[in-house]
Queue: 3 jobs
Job 1
Amino acid sequence: MTKENLNPFEIAQQQISEAGKYISLDPAIEEILKQPKRVLEVTFPVRMDDGTVRVFKGIRSQHNDAIGPYKGGVRYHPDVTVDEVKALSMWMTFKCGVVGLPYGGGKGGVICNPKELSQGELQRISRAYIEAIAPIIGPDKDIPAPDVYTNAQVMAWMMDAYSRLQGSNQFGVVTGKPIVVGGSLGREKATAQGCVFVIIKAAEKLGLDLKGAAVAIQGYGNVGSQAAFLLNQLGCKIVALSDSRGGIYNPDGIDLDKVSEHKSSTGSCVNLPGSRSITNAELLELPVDILIPAALENQITADNAARVKAKVVAEAANGPTTPEASRILYANGITVIPDILANAGGVTVSYFEWVQNLMHYYWSEEEVFEKLRTNMYNAFDNVYAASQQHQVDLRTGAYIVAISRIAEAIKVRGYA
Ligand code: NAD
């Protein structure tokens, strides 16, 4: 097994240095970008259903706000660490920067196991966390959103807790809310839709016909399943899918309606009649045109990258490819659409939600997707142009676009 450095904070720092070389990044700005501006650690007591009181730990990392308020999700997980939250807040700065949103990066976490918590306990934790970080968040300061094991309901509690503290409705303090309290139409499909928009652009550049193109998707969850349906509508053939229990493969194409039926009766896509069972590792190495990792980080590594056969890898998941694997894929002529671009549709529609909240005026789903299309196409073109200009992969191109924009803001504001 190859030893790779998989510390997310150190990887994020290396990516800044790597892209910085191509734009002669001012060393002072590089130093500024390598650390979050503020990291708040809080503890708060919560009354559990059995009457006992437990003290939970929460974190909010605010990386950089040179071009706008901090923006980023809140993760509920027993393994949340300060380093992980710091790295995720950095990636949010670059994700917002690459698609040109007027936001900097933030991220939050609460160390807890949501699978062991009742709805009442989850609500009390969510309210207490927001009260603890209230001094540093707000519609013009820092706008949280859902992440791993947080959802629209959690956002509604958070918005309500913050609104009560302020004495008036503050819909714009978090995004990813239910529609009835200021959520945006299209938010649930946004990440997959954004990913499909950049796949369309990449296919155009490569001369790849999407009609009949073979697609494998690792992780048939929210993003993976929506991407499958959208690509199917464009004429792609979905040949492989997987979830945490394993994968299925049919080179002639998988009927997605049958997958939905099978998944609702068995809880998984595995053993779908008419398909061959494969492992998640095998899925990554199939002879397909498009591979979409949509599950976990560190799936394509130095160990398996040389066996990836796809023409395009669209990183719907965050961090599915290690830095070493990225170099191998690039050397092998595989086009990798990096996570900070490929899954930025989610934060883009979060931005649209916030804009609608501030205007108190709401758009149709068609309007939302039309604006998303414009943003994602422009972002792809900018990244592609940067990668061509500097003869680098799209990931480095994406960092060049994002860092150039943030560096300019830092400069004109007089920080460096
Ligand atoms: P999800 O929980 O709905 O789906 C995840 C899927 O991955 C599930 O089908 C699960 O069974 C599968 N999975 C879990 N462990 C696996 C394993 N070891 N091997 C293969 N599959 C496994 O999550 P989601 O919202 O679809 O998010 C997927 C990825 O996309 C994550 O990396 C997330 O950070 C990223 N992402 C999501 C959004 C969003 O808007 N939901 C936005 C940006 C990035």
Job 2
Amino acid sequence: MKFFLDTADVGKIKAAVEMGMCDGVTTNPTIIMKSGRGQREVVREIAALVPGPVSVEGISEDADGMVKEGTEFAKWAKNIVVKVPMTKEGLKAARILEKKGIKTNVTLVFSANQALLAAKAGASYVSPFVGRLDDISEDGMQLIADIMEIFSNYEFKTEVIVASVRDPVHVVDAARMGAHIATIPPDVFEKLFRHPLTDRGIAQFKEDYAKSKK
Ligand code: E4P
């Protein structure tokens, strides 16, 4: 299973890369806005740091505009992946960009049929948003289970990125379902390491070491 970081925080990405825990990065216009930096500048810096794919999203709504934007993004670095929205125009753009050798990530996916369409369009990645489904009282992880079941019936090249991850349970459930990738915000990534019994165990061993015969 691959871990992507869902952030444009260069310091946090660098730390995770150094631990061998960051296989890629996803961004969107909100994430870029929060970084306080320009999209081109920050994405180029991230792409140089990360060994794997870095997703970048534009704002065009028609296929021609998305292809133009995506072709420009792809010039920034070899590992750029172009995000396109899950619309007819987005799927048209995905097909064209993939034919040009530019990888795409179909984003804002909220149903199994949308994921199926993205796979049929030849996208390299599909991003179902689990947290936003949970937010409206739907079961985000059930969508991942459905998509994994459907994809296992065929030989699509499309990899599933579990997106809009809100807590560590999303990550463990994604792994249990065999999702290819989870894109994880830094605060959730930090939580994956922690367990109170680990902390308590370390403290106890330290205490006992100090008391033991030297
Ligand atoms: C990733 O590709 C998505 O843009 C991101 O996970 C969305 O997360 P959010 O629903 O927390 O904004």
Job 3
Amino acid sequence: MDRKNKIWYKNAVFYELYVRAFFDSNNDGHGDLRGMTQKLDYLQDLGIDCLWIMPIYPSPLKDDGYDIADYYQILPEYGILDDFKALIDEVHAREMRLIVDLVLNHTSDQHPWFQAARSDKESPYRDYYVWSDTSYKYGDARIIFLDTETSNWTWDEVAGQYYWHRFYSSQPDLNYDNPRVQEEMIKVMQYWLDLGVDGFRADAVPYLFEREGTNCENLPETHAFIKRVRNFLDQNYPGRILLAEANQWPEDVRAYFGDGDEFHMGFHFPVMPRIFMALRKGDRTPIKSILDRTPEIPENCQWCTFLRNHDELTLEMVTEEEREWMWKEYAPDVRMRLNLGIRRRLAPLLDNDQRKIELAYSLLFTLPGSPIIYYGDEIGMGDDVELPDRNGVRTPMQWDSDINAGFSGTDASLLYSPIITHEQYNPQQVSVIKQISLSNSLYNRIRKMIQIRKGMHIFSRGSLEWVEAIPDALAAYWRKNDSEKVLVINNLSNTKQNVIIQVDEPFENIWVELLTERSYESKGGKMRVELEPFEYMWFKNLI
Ligand code: GLC
Ligand code: CA
């Protein structure tokens, strides 16, 4: 791995992985660190540069590990610290990197800090959390888990006070006004950095501080703390990164890059639902408008773009009207809805139509930002709406059509989650082994797109210029830098498109479509292109 390349994340392809779902090495029904280690070749072969794993710490699992009871250990079902060290070594041996979840905002109510805090008003840990005698403070803060929580305050019998929580009531918020809390978190980071992690995906960043009269999101105090964290990282661990989960409008996320002295990366939440809108409407406008409204970011920063992740497809960053429309189109069955989102996977959302799924990836891999793939979406896995909360999109990885989809050798009744049985998505239909063996499978197309992208820094660093004078059904744009230019054309519609695009000065030229390696000619600076429904093409100039 090129350790000297401090801005590796700008051109990296990321993969989000749920350890419990990936591979079970000891046949107890739960995926684990050793299992994941055994499957690293698969990820390397796909072309992944950096893995993000969801929380692996001891936890009562009220929120799948986002409720941490000990920041310094491994959840026993996942293994022990030595397994983690071995994993890191194996990841690095394959020229890949690994980042872990850093849950800053809250702990589990089972964490010893909270236990000490609630049981003794005089305990130094009392002030690690946010308490009140009433439930009226910070009334302008919204409730995030709308389907389950009715307030951000919960009465604690033992403490005799209310405590503050932005997520489940089993996740009390830490009090960042207490300098000791800030110190504790920096210590936690140091611990994992010393174990060799390449950075953190920082969970729920906007909510660290509370101030009366505000919505308690994106406060200046939060930015000051992040700058402190970044400075600590730069001083001691250059080349390691911070990726922000800030589900906010582009201008608010922009602030998390600071002057290049806060986060290295931030998820681009608003563009995600608009990719789905554009695909359903056959119209580029939603994508173009949100990118037009996305501010420039500092040179050493990068957006992280995604189609799906382990949560519901969030519809927080759309208008109410758009949300209703998205629910109507993509979640007609109310069981598919959760909070302000849609709890479905990529393939079922796109009608299991490989043309549309590939097209979504074509957008993901060619628009600005570093893309992240959610485990299983590269093979078109399905979901299970019968399972509660977000569990339906966290089912076992389907390796082959053997027992338990090749995920585990245990009795099916012992699996942490049932395998998908749906007629279109069961392991006979959808599996890694099958996808690898079919040359035109989704997996192989994605692999090809990744190969092309990785060889061309233009996709990660080039400018973006839209081709305007063509039908709205086409999302066509240039990616350019000083030495190269690439023209990407995506047909978002279900109809054939025949266009003439001004590609050059008025002379003749030869263009190569990168995915098929076919040549196209432009005459008088114009190129004629015919696209099948949902077809996409990436053109590069030969001269
Ligand atoms: C983030 C995680 C989500 C979790 C929440 C609370 O949004 O992505 O899974 O439930 O934080 O920690
Ligand atoms: Ca196991």
